[in-house]
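Input:
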Amino acid sequence: MSVLAGKETRLVVQGFTGKEGTFHAEQMIAYGTNVIGGVTPGKGGGTHLDRPVFNTVADSVAKEEANTSVIFVPPAFAADAITESALAGIKTIVCITEGIPVKDMIVAREVVRRHGATLIGPNCPGIITPGEAKVGIMPGNVFTPGPVGVISRSGTLTYEAVDQLTKAGLGQSTAIGIGGDPVIGTKHQDAAALFNEDPDTEAIVLIGEIGGTDEEDAAAWIQKNVKKPVVAFIAGRTAPPGRRMGHAGAIVSGGKGTADDKITALKAAGITVCDSPAVIGDTVKELLS
Amino acid sequence: MNIHEYQAKELLKQYQVAVPDGVSAFTVDDAVKAAEELEKKGATLFVVKAQIHAGGRGKGRTKSSGAKGVILAKSVEEVKEAAESLLGDTLVTVQTGEAGKKVERLYITDGVDIEQEYYVGITLDRTRNQNVIMVSTEGGVEIEKVAEETPEKIVKEWVEPGLPLQANQARRLAFALGLSGEPFKKAVRFIAALHKAFEATDASIIEINPLALTGSNDVVALDAKMNFDDNALYRQKAIAEMRDESEEDPLELEADASDLNYIKLDGNVGCMVNGAGLAMATMDMIKLAGGEPANFLDVGGTANVDTVRNGFRIILQDPSVEAILINIFGGIVRCDRVAGGIIEAVKDPAIIKKLENVPIIVRLQGTNADEGKELIDQSGLNVISAVLLKEAAEEVTRAISA
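Output:
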């Protein structure tokens, strides 16, 4: 068992024949993900990477029973790609694209919600269930199967945490990169709920950063609902207010979203918070032993 | 992206948002002409406002003349004096820090008579994933303070995704301001127009503080702050052109031109990292190690020779940097290739000269990390290598205490 991605994943790649789409589709296939094909409007009927190219996501659902999509479409067209997947009945939509306007994402998120789909991202590294499926751009070799569920807003910081876990002898059930934008499909709390229900996840690592109040909301929910041990790290204690730290969502504004607020809320909920990003692996190991 | 008040007001006017008459000025002569123009339209009182990208101008003072950032003038002659005291001087407000900001633009407006001051703002509510319109009867003061001390005095309406603001929502907000009759109707129109402007311009924040009810029963924006979604600037060309680069840090502008995500900070340890989250975590680690981060620098997913070289060039222009920590997690980009890029960049004569007194700590982890470390160790360059994050932190402590 795992969450969101696994052996049952039938993946369609949106933006399949583009440079990014091609490179990462190859990597996902090499990892063993069941990539059924891809979508590039106007190139339907051809093949790419030995797999069919469709004009629409709906075609990929009708002909190959795609149930998951991953989006490598430029930012101006990515919100449209998200809604196309939702309207075609795709259940898990992973949007890697960075730089989608907030105005477009507010509407796309609502369309996804109405159609009962799950959106991961945008501006995220994707999802990986080690040994089963990779839906995104994570380096597969860092991950290993095991009992820890990982939730994170950022890419390389996730790999860092996972690498520490792997070196500490702890594999991962699934790692979910939820994305660094202000409007995302799945928040910390939603991802924690998925891991809470997953029998193969024994502990949860939650990696947050400054901006918004998603980590605080998750802390309150976890306190009420989660019995599994949770370890957290919040990046951005030294970030100045009012400045956007790379991620569009990583900004302390109006005095809200500081790292200290988040750490206080997480600790108050009984969650173990690491002071340094260097000790995430050791902290989980200690807690599980 | 930020714009000046006068630009925001000119933009808002295009969307039928009511603002007092005003003219921008870059010189004292311009300011006098602006005042004369307003006088012809019937103005008897003028406001001379310094245009800088920072709030708190009314309470701020300029460094040499000691003038306030917002000056009330009763005649064209007084406008001239005010312009002379502000232009070219440096204005210090609670938001600029001690360095302050040089005043290079002014905005001369009609000094309307104020009956009552309110607040109205629009921004994204991240918890609800909807835009929220907030109004308050507590205008002219810091809204964060109102939110903290008397949250019940802020009334909110959330805009349904994909729908325009509903008339009932605008009415509820106008009623919340305690208005009736003609001012009520005008406030409803103001709020609806403001939301239209927000949507049409891909704004991320609009704040009207204060929104004024005038003696002649008009509802107008006395101040206007607008920020925009950087991700949408590609389709907002007219707004992108309003960018005032003199308001930005020159190093940050240079980094921007090289596609690097750099933010200048006040510390002594420079850092170069791939990925925004890891970059923030690295800054935090520098602090835990006893240093202070000198910058945020995300070189992105592909850390090649060019990005590393540009990164060095920018970090080394900051004279407070005593050590540099490079922290790269190699995923799909292999560490040995990143190491090769670092070695080549450090060999650049312009860079190697500046590095004489600045130790570099390179921490490579992930794919081919050991091969990367070996390349660095064998390069013969004055570079300290580390594999674990813990080791890197210890090396930083050692470097800055040496």
